[in-house]
């Protein structure tokens, strides 16, 4: 049985991926500093997967603690989710973002190098493409330096990993997520937004449940069919499955150095208004909204060409927008039932 270190394994995408790993017979060790999660997520992972992963609550910048984990376990690979991810906050606290997202990454890579471990999966983002000149976006689309410090940590993380793989003959996979949404079908796992959500779907959900009065739609004068911005919303469980496939591929590779890059999206763009309509239709609830000015830094349109992931990983996003948004609403009801 292979042992995989999952950093940020109690977070949104991390927790769903841990379940998929456990269900595929991997031994999982989570390191998570709990800055964006809660302990019940660990219990719920166990309820869903029927197995409890090993868990260490600490910050990956604490090298001496990380060293002890690597001393205690024979680790075969890592999926690195641990990172700060709030775009607006990253503009106010850029040093915190560079320090947290990049130092923790480098600390793990130093252990990989010292112990001759390969197989590293990095959570990247479609933010590395900025506003691409063409849609859909495939992996050969030129990168543009993101505006936010958060986005820059993703692009820098990719560069660090490419150099790491090349210099030390390692296998890495850079997974560029489009917009992850939805919750586990059991309603036991999902996103835990802290404070006022920045992202669309958590805000829509909280508006539908009355926590927020109205959704603000940031702009309806974009050059898109209905004037609202278009994104590629991919279901989090589909996304989690892609990690297992990317890991299995890396582990099966014979060559020393591998740098895999995959776009993970559905290949379909949906506008903000389409997301609102889909949520209302899937859950038979109303989402009051108002049209506001554009949000600074937002792009007009981004959706994936994910053919490479289908070709090389045998992965395809399968879940519809309606279905993904239905799971989100079930998760919201679950959260409210816990209060
Ligand atoms: C954002 C980040 C991206 C990051 C991702 C993480 C930017 C420019 N991009 O993506 O780097 O990887 O989050 O999840 O910030 N919207 C509203 N009202 C709201 C919230 C959002 O109209 O209350 C609109 C936005 O203007 C956008 C769409 O919904 O058009 C999606 O927004 P969001 O969920 O924040 O994701 P992105 O901005 O695409």
Commentary on this structure:
The chain has 339 residues and is of the alpha/beta class. The chain has a domain at 3-181 and 234-265: 3-Layer(aba) Sandwich (Rossmann fold), CATH 3.40.50. The chain has eleven helices and 13 strands. It has helices spanning 12-23, 40-49, 63-72, 87-92, 94-115, 149-168, 200-208, 236-252, 272-283, 307-313, 321-337, and strands spanning 3-7, 27-31, 54-56, 77-80, 120-125, 171-177, 179-181, 215-218, 230-231, 233-235, 258-264, 270-271, 289-292. The protein has a seven-stranded parallel β-sheet, with helices on both faces. A two-stranded parallel ribbon has the order 7-10. It has a two-stranded parallel sheet with strand order 8-13. Helix 1 (12-23) packs parallel to helix 2 (40-49). It is globular. It starts with a strand and ends with a helix. The model has no long low-confidence stretch (mean pLDDT 97). Bound molecules: uridine-diphosphate-N-acetylglucosamine. Residues 85, 87, 125, 127, 151, 179, 198-200, 203, 215-218, 229, 231, 272, 295, 297-298 line the site of uridine-diphosphate-N-acetylglucosamine.
CATH topology of the domain at 3-181 and 234-265: Rossmann fold
Give the overall shape, derived from the CA principal axes. globular
Order of helices and strands: EHEHEHEHHEHEEHEEEHEEHEHH
Helix content: 40-55%
CATH H-level superfamily title of the domain at 3-181 and 234-265? NAD(P)-binding Rossmann-like Domain
The CATH architecture name of the domain at 3-181 and 234-265 reads: 3-Layer(aba) Sandwich
Number of helical elements: 11
Low-confidence stretches: none
What fraction of residues sit in β-strands?
15-25%
Radius of gyration (Å): 19 Å
As laid out across the biggest beta sheet, the strand order is 3-2-1-4-5-6-11
In this entry the ligands are: uridine-diphosphate-N-acetylglucosamine
Main sheet overview: 7 strands, parallel
Q: What distance separates the N and C termini?
A: 38 Å
The number of strands is: 13
Mean pLDDT: 97
Q: Structural class of the secondary elements?
A: alpha/beta
